[in-house]
Specification:
The structure is a single chain. A 4-stranded antiparallel sheet has the order 1-2-3-4, with helices on both faces. The protein is an alpha+beta fold. The protein folds into 2 domains: 34 residues; 93 residues, Gcn5-related N-acetyltransferase (GNAT) (Aminopeptidase). It starts with a helix and ends with a helix. A hairpin with a 2-residue loop joins strand 2 and strand 3. Helices cover 56% and strands 15% of the residues.
Length: 134
């Protein structure tokens, strides 16, 4: 093989290797920077064992009442009681970024529950006033 052609082939291969390494590094950096999808929802009865486990990991008493929970990859990793109180979080997972989301969701749900009760109470008063006297 001609020495110049050999050198051109070596240079082209080196450029290709560098290009592939740069693309792989960029893909890795992008995938590491992407946040995991998070699902915020109200707890269900099936979440009780998980909430108990989170409370045990946190050294807190068994949780009571409804909670807003944060799921990552199908697993509950944090919870916040709707009635107020300390959050429960898995100490072995990164959950600090979830707590403000849980707090926001709790605030969104609290007025809804209160206003729904107030609306029902208001309807009951109106219905009582509108009934004819006998």
């Amino acid at each position: 093989m001609h020495p110049e052609f050999l050198q051109m082939t070596i240079d082209e291969n080196e450029r290709e290797i560098r290009r592939r390494a740069r693309n792989a590094r960029l893909r890795r950096e992008l995938s590491e920077g992407l946040p995991e999808p998070v699902l915020l929802r109200l707890c269900t009865i099936t979440d009780d064992p998980t909430l108990d486990r989170l409370a045990e990991l946190e050294g807190q008493p068994q949780p009571q009442g409804r909670h807003v929970v944060a799921e990552v990859d199908g697993a509950v990793v944090a919870a916040l009681p709707l009635a107020g109180g300390p959050a429960l979080a898995d100490p072995f997972r990164s959950t600090a970024q979830l707590l403000p989301l849980l707090e926001l969701r709790r605030r969104q749900l609290a007025p809804t529950q209160t206003s729904a009760i107030a609306r029902l109470a208001g309807r009951a008063k109106t219905a009582t006033r509108l009934q004819p006297a006998r």
